Amino acid sequence: MALGFSGVFGLVQLAQAQPDTVRIVLAIHGGAGTITRAQMTPEREQQYREALRQALQEGYAVLQAGGSSLDAVVAAIRVLEDSPLFNAGRGAVLNRDGVAELDATIMDGRTLKAGAVAGVQTVKNPILLARRVMEATPHVLLIGRAAEAFAQEQGLEIVPNEYFIVPERRLQLQRLREQGIGIVPEEASSTYGTVGAVALDRRGNLAAGTSTGGLMGKLPGRVGDSAIIGAGTYADNATCAVSTTGQGEYFIRGVVAHEIAALMKYASLSVQQAASAAIYGTLAGLGGQGGVIALDRNGQLAVVFNTEGMYRGYVDEHGHITIQIYRD
Ligand code: ASP
């Protein structure tokens, strides 16, 4: 079976490999897409770096205090959902009708339990709701109005849809409309910003989570990979924890997050080889673009993307933080 992936190994050097000796305990991403130095101002870059740093610090504080990987993932993602810079929570992209519709998932690598929500419009932190679905219901995925009613029952913070909408997203939607661009995943790579986290705690438990507003100009009701366990999020203590970002339709069709775990489990690939195969092989083979962070049970991190850039960062077991944005 590994023979089928032999082409992948030549591509491994394109991935952002982490030093073999350092154990990573938390990694995050803030979306992949057309992110280049040319379109970034120093001030804006600083803002992104600050937000990513804060998310890593919050998540690391949980792990350092002996907390669970699930708690660390939620803590990190919450910071990014609350930041207007990212396409998750406040700052989410808008659907064709100018409404923010949010998706989120979380998965526990120890129990293989998972929770997800899709198309919610009024829940301030969708990652918290995904976790409630996992822990307080026998289900995995709740959608739309009913998910919002459940959030209310659970005492989660409810906000008007306007809370999520920042001026820049309105402008992006307007530009999309003016250009008459159809709502196709191919056009969405300029509105990056989905957020995700993977963590490994002291007990050796892995967890993963992802949160997004989806694709700019999407049809109302469209659900992306960030709401689908196995596509945008996966965690299994036996292999790895994965969060993806990019053109969700392709991640769903390639079942990308689960594929990485499956390649490790059944083809004995390393996390780096598996993530490279999934992105450069499966995703790119379908014509899709995006990226992935995947953390194995030994703390080895693979960060692989076939876009120009990806907001990303990680913290090692000594608390050392690294943040990167561009390909180089
Ligand atoms: N994967 C997300 C979606 O398709 C979007 C993104 O990651 O930017 O909903």
From TrEMBL:
GO MF, one annotated term: peptidase activity
Site positions (Cleavage): 193-194
Gene3D superfamilies, A to Z: (Glycosyl)asparaginase
Positions contributing to substrate binding: 222-225, 245-248
Keyword field: Autocatalytic cleavage, Hydrolase, Protease
CDD domains: Asparaginase_2 (cd04701)
InterPro entries attached to this UniProt entry: Ntn_hydrolases_N, Peptidase_T2
Active site per the UniProt annotation: 194
Keyword Signal part of the UniProt annotation: no
GO biological process, one term: proteolysis
Protein name per Swiss-Prot or TrEMBL: Isoaspartyl peptidase
Pfam family, one: Asparaginase_2
The organism's place on the tree of life at top rank: Bacteria
SUPFAM superfamilies in alphabetical order: N-terminal nucleophile aminohydrolases (Ntn hydrolases) (SSF56235)
